[in-house]
Amino acid sequence: MAALLRDIKRFIDFTLSKMKSLFVKMKPWQLVLLFAFAYLLPIMVSLGLENSLLGPPGEEFAIRSIVTFFRALGMIAILVSLVIFLWKWFIGHYLYDLLPDKEEVNFKKYKLSLIINLVFGIIWGLLFLTGFVFVLILSTGQIPYLFFLLILLVGVNVFIFARINLFPYFASKSILQSLPYRAVTLTPTFFRFIRTIELQKELNEIYSRFGNSGKVDERTI
Fold first, then answer.
1. 147 and 133 in contact (C-beta within 8 Å)?
2. Could you report the per-residue pLDDT of 23-75, keeping only the tens digit for each?
3. d(C-alpha 144, C-alpha 180), whole Å
4. pLDDT digits (tens, 9 = 90+) for 93-104
5. DSSP state of 2
6. Angle at CA 119, nearest 5°, toward 116 and 123?
7. What secondary structure letter does DSSP report for 216?
8. Is 71 exposed, middle or buried (0-12, 13-18, 19+ CB in 10 A)?
C-alpha cells in the first residue's frame, strides 16, 4: 500500500511538473491558439448540437437560437476560466520559485484568488449552460436578483485581490530586471491580452536563462 501511494505521488508530481513546464515554455502564438480554442470550441459544440439534435429551423427557431447562445456562453465561461486558472497557477508557481524576495508576496492569497475566480467562472457557466437564467427571465419577466448578487461578489473579489492577481506580471519583471518585487511597476494598458502576450514572452526568456533551477543565482537583489 505504501509503495502504491509513493507511485501515485510520483506520478502526480511528474504530471504537475510537465504541465508547469508546458505552460512556461509555451510560445505566445501557442497561448493565443489555446485561448482561441477555449472560446471557439463551445460555439462549435453548441452549433453542432443545434443542427444534429434539434432538427431544421422551424417556428421555434428564435427560442432555439437563444438557447444555443446561452449554452455556448456557459461552456465558454467554464472552459476559459479553467484555462486561465491552469495557466496562472503553473506560471505563478514557477515564478514564485525563482523570486528571491518571496517574503514580499502573499502566495497563498494569490492561489486563493485563482480558486475563487475559477469558482465564479464555473457558477456563471452553469447558470447559463443549464438555462437557469433564461428560464427565470422568461417566467418572471425580470432579471433575477442572483445576477446582481453575483456581480456584487465579483466586484468585491476584484477589489480585494486586485494587486495579487497581477503577481505573475510583477514577478517576471522583477526577475528579468533585477529589481525588488515591490519596486516593479507596470505600464498602463487598455488591452489586457497584450500584457498577457508580453508576459508569455518574458516567461520564455526567463526559462531560457534559468530553466527549472528553482532559484536565481545570477543576480542579487
1. yes
2. 999 999 999 999 999 998 888 887 776 666 555 555 566 666 777 777 888 88
3. 47
4. 999 999 888 888
5. H
6. 140
7. -
8. buried
Q: Where are the domains of the chain?
A: 2-210
| Non-local CB neighbours of 98 within 8 Å, separated by 6+ positions | 171, 175, 206, 210, 213, 214, 215, 216
Alpha-carbon gap, residue 62 to 134, rounded angstroms: 13
What is the rounded distance in angstroms from the CA atom of residue 70 to the CA atom of residue 134?
A: 8
The total number of residues written for the chain in this structure: 221
- Radius of gyration for the chain, computed over Cα atoms and rounded to the nearest angstrom: 21
Burial of 133 (0-12, 13-18, 19+ CB in 10 A): buried
Listed as ranges, residues in the chain with pLDDT below 50 are: 217-221
Q: Where are the alpha helices (DSSP H) in the chain?
A: 2-25, 28-53, 61-98, 107-129, 132-140, 145-160, 167-177, 192-210
- 88 Cβ contact list (under 8 Å, min separation 6): 114, 168
Q: Are 170 and 186 in contact (CB under 8 A)?
A: yes
